[in-house]
Amino acid sequence: MTQTITLIPGDGIGPEVAAATVRILDAAGAELEYENQIAGGEALARHGDPLPNEVMDSIRRNQVALKGPVTTPVGKGFRSVNVRLRQALDLYANLRPVRSLPGPVRQRFDNVDLVVVRENTEGLYSGIEHEVVPGVVESLKIVTKKASERIARFAFEHARLHDRQRVTAVHKANILKMSDGLFLQCLRNTAEAYEEIECDDRIIDALCMQLVVFPERFDILVLPNLYGDIVSDLCAGLVGGLGVVAGANLGDKIAVFEAVHGSAPDIAGQNIANPTALIRSGILMLRHLGQKEAANRIETALDHVFNTAETLTRDLGGQASTTEFAEAIVRAMNAQ
Ligand code: NAI
Q1: At what angle do helices 81-88 and 53-62 cross, to 10 degrees?
Q2: 201-227 pLDDT, tens per residue?
Q3: How much helix, strand and coil, in percent to the nearest 5, is found in the chain?
Q4: Ligand 1 — pocket residues by CB below 6 A?
Q5: Rounded percentage of the chain residues whose pLDDT exceeds 70
Q6: What is the distance in A from the centroid of ligand 1 to the CA of 326?
Q7: Mean pLDDT of 173-199
Q8: 37 near 98, Cβ under 8 Å?
Q9: Which residues are identified as catalytic?
């Protein structure tokens, strides 16, 4: 049965990687129809809001979206579209599988296979900031038992479903004794219901050191919002960079799939971005929709392109354009 999804190409390299991903999804025989929606810079110019109501209505109606990156102004301007979207739709779990690329592709480690689970709705991203007196500002970090237990359950359920052995809670509870302390306590309490899965924890700074020395020792990491945002980019750097790591924002009903990377204004419009991250997000989406055959076809073809390493984008040491890379994947699927 054909499923309608909301497609948000986004800003910067978004339209280029989204076009490549749709080309591949269609060539794989995915049974999808796309409802195109504009969010980000163009929506701001047209409607005065980077996240118009009709985008939200479309996602609520279809319950599944594939989204490109959206630019957020630094230090001023409108609130992040991504944060608004995640909070308004209660997409509380941000899932980012980080796996080394197959084949001889240039990357730091060839033995990484971990999953970053980031709490997606609160922490320092609650957006509650104010000036106390001139020269003094306050940003509130909100941590609730409800959201911490919910993300803990998500991480352990994911471990159970995907045969993963260990969940590591990441925190700074030695300093932030109340907020990160509550997050850690919720993880430990939840772990009791999952006896077969090991549970341990790391202080965020020590974790960062360990990740860049022996990343292969980690399995599932579960982190508060800000640490999860930072650590997922760090993890992308272990395995080929931002161009290759997929993501999913999941709630109880709605799911928005998007790459880890941003709009990459430095390379936008040049047809040189690596579309792998959004393609892999598309694979996650197909599995979520139960379209496993199309998902497997794309994954096998992607692995083939990395294994032969003849057609790679510049971030991975090749010369191929975004469209040439996508066509190589289509050829690999046709040859299956
Ligand atoms: P970025 O991820 O856009 O770029 C960082 C570096 O990685 C750049 O050198 C870029 O060229 C490279 N890069 C990123 N994706 C790539 C790809 N697919 N292929 C090849 N190279 C790639 O991060 P930056 O520059 O910090 O942010 C730019 C904008 O994106 C900001 O406005 C930020 O707020 C927004 N952003 C949006 C996200 C989203 O919509 N989910 C996530 C992260 C950032």
Answers
A1: 50
A2: 999 999 999 999 999 999 999 999 999
A3: 45, 20, 35
A4: 13, 17, 69-72, 82, 242-243, 258, 261-267, 273-274, 277, 315
A5: 100
A6: 20
A7: 98
A8: no
A9: 125, 172, 205, 229
